[in-house]
Design brief:
Blueprint lengths: L1 E10 L4 E9 L2 E6 L7 E5 L4 E4 L1 E3 L7 E2 L2 E2 L4 H10 L2 E8 L6 H12 L6 E7 L5 H6 L10 E5 L10 H13 L3 E5 L3 H13 L6 H5 L3 H18 L3 E6 L2 H12 L4 E5 L1 H5 L2 H4 L16 H13 L4 E2 L14 E3 L2 E3 L24 H10 L6 H15 L17 E11 L18 E11 L2 E5 L2 E2 L18
Parallel strand pairs: 1-4, 1-5, 6-9, 9-10, 10-11, 11-12, 12-13, 13-14, 14-15
Antiparallel strand pairs: 1-2, 2-3, 5-18, 7-8, 16-17, 18-19, 19-20, 20-21
The chain binds N-(aminocarbonyl)-beta-alanine and zinc ion (2 copies).
One zinc ion (ZN) binds next to strand 13.
Length: 471
């Protein structure tokens, strides 16, 4: 089975050029100015851009949180991703009971028969001892090349600095990238107890009890630990301008330090947490100030930040009221759990499907970055950093035919009825967007066309990651 994408403009991280692209089976087999293939189905991409499918390097599918669980499973989350032009996601494995390998097997079983796009996994390291130290060496053979550690969530997820240092050192020796969730767990615990004792219950207190300085200092700590461990580090979900400064400082001193931000930190601020429906915006780390947004944009524009991910971790706003999903009523407890206490609001936001269209409109459409930078930030860089390149993240002969046929002139009013996340709200409700994926291909198969779904549960595959690159 061959498919010929004709007359499109191919956009890679390096350049944009007019070319035809021929797919056979699951792979791209030819790229040339003009291709004729009588045995191929022809897709006319005139006026459209051909982008490598998006890669979201930070999502949480089925993540248990307090009294509930994030509301997308592998089917609904991967379908939502595909509608927004993303064809690969990287989720996190919680370190629950048992060995790392057992935890990974359990997570993969959740995806089995459900994932509709390809996926890889990061391993959380939230408990460290001699046996975990030994097991880290096994991760590459299980296809995992990245681990996540936390400087917050005391007595639950956090490791001590000495443990993080040890983990990074072992990770560096085994070709693993350490990702760091950088907040100050001790300060958060003090401020949270004080806020609750004073009767503060509303969503804004989620941000007020997690001061941004804690993130700035924890980011520098992560970079400094990596320098001392002689190992690479990647700061996740950066939301503070000061974190970008710390990353730039490390990079200027030759520390192999990289990082990501997420759309919510570019477009929303603490003000949104003060709204009557502020719980919709509760995530960790929290939304910050317009000055922080500027700092993050600067980091994106100058290349200090390599990746735009989402930290997709959706919850219902009102999980007592069902929504219709594929003809069935579904309700999952959500943000209403914290109506009397901000610490009980499940932390996290929907976003895997929103990422590309929202970012295109406000980054490329606003001339902040080029289409090539867009591809680098949303597909090529995550593929390279997380060891999926060149199978994913590029338009090249031999690569998987994961494509988004992108119409840069398509205008729409966005919101919960366009996005396909399994939740009852969307952060970008009513936003006017320009630029949208009209067709999406996963390994040569069309899975979305004109906002219609042709994908299938179970057709997504687990990807074996290789050693990643330092960018
Ligand atoms: O609020 C968020 N981001 N929830 C997901 C967990 C995390 O730390 O990324
Ligand atoms: Zn995190
Ligand atoms: Zn996360």
């Amino acid at each position: 089975m061959k498919t010929l994408i004709k007359n499109g403009t191919l956009v890679t991280a390096e350049s944009s050029f007019q070319a035809d692209l021929l797919i056979e089976g699951e792979h791209i087999i030819q790229i040339a100015p003009s291709i004729e293939a009588i045995d191929a189905e022809v897709v006319d991409a005139s006026g459209q851009l051909v982008l490598p499918g998006g890669i979201d390097a930070h999502v949480h599918i089925n993540l248990p949180m307090g009294e509930t669980v994030s509301s997308d499973d592998y089917y609904t989350g991967s379908k939502a991703a595909a509608f927004g032009g993303t064809t690969t996601i990287i989720d996190f494995v919680s370190q629950d009971a048992g060995s790392l390998a057992e935890n990974i097997a359990r997570k993969r079983a959740e995806a089995e028969g459900k994932a509709a796009i390809d996926y890889n996994l990061h391993m959380n390291i939230t408990r460290f001892d001699e046996s975990v130290a030994e097991e880290l060496a096994d991760l590459p053979s299980l296809g995992i090349r990245s681990i996540k550690v936390f400087t917050a969530y005391n007595n639950r997820l956090r490791l001590g600095d000495g443990e993080i240092f040890k983990v990074m050192r072992i990770a560096g020796r085994h070709g693993l990238l350490t990702m760091v969730h950088a907040e100050n767990g001790d300060v958060i615990d003090v401020l949270t107890a004080e806020a609750l004792a004073q009767g503060h219950t509303s969503p804004i207190w989620h941000a007020r009890t997690r001061p941004g300085w804690g993130e700035v200092e924890a980011s520098l700590r992560a970079v400094a630990l990596a320098a001392q461990a002689e190992a690479p580090v990647y700061i996740v979900h950066m939301n503070m301008a000061g974190e970008v400064d710390q990353l730039a400082y490390g990079r200027a001193h030759d520390v192999p330090a990289m990082g990501e931000t997420c759309p919510q930190y570019l477009f929303f601020s603490e003000k949104d947490l003060e709204r009557q429906d502020g719980a919709k915006w509760v995530c960790s780390p929290p939304l910050r100030s317009p000055a922080d947004q500027d700092g993050l944009w600067h980091g994106i524009e100058t290349g200090t930040i390599q990746v735009l991910a989402t930290d997709h971790c959706p919850f219902f706003y009102d999980g007592t009221k069902p929504i219709l999903y594929e003809g069935k009523l579904v309700s999952i407890p959500g943000k209403e759990l914290g109506k009397d206490n901000f610490t009980r609001i499940p932390n996290g936001l929907p976003g895997v499907g929103d990422r590309l269209p929202v970012f295109w409109t406000h980054a490329v459409g606003a001339c902040r970055i080029t289409p090539n930078q867009f591809v680098a930030l949303t597909s090529t860089n995550p593929a390279r950093i997380f060891g999926l390149y060149p199978q994913k993240g590029c338009l090249a002969v031999g690569s998987d035919a994961d494509l988004a046929l992108w119409d840069p002139n398509y205008e729409l009013t966005y919101g919960v009825h366009v996005a396909q996340h399994r939740t009852d709200y969307n952060l970008y409700e009513g936003w006017q967007l320009k630029g949208f994926p009209r067709q999406v291909f996963l390994r040569g198969k069309r899975i979305v066309a004109d906002q219609q779904w042709f994908g299938k549960a179970g057709s997504g595959r687990y990807l074996m990651a290789h050693p990643g690159e330092i960018l």
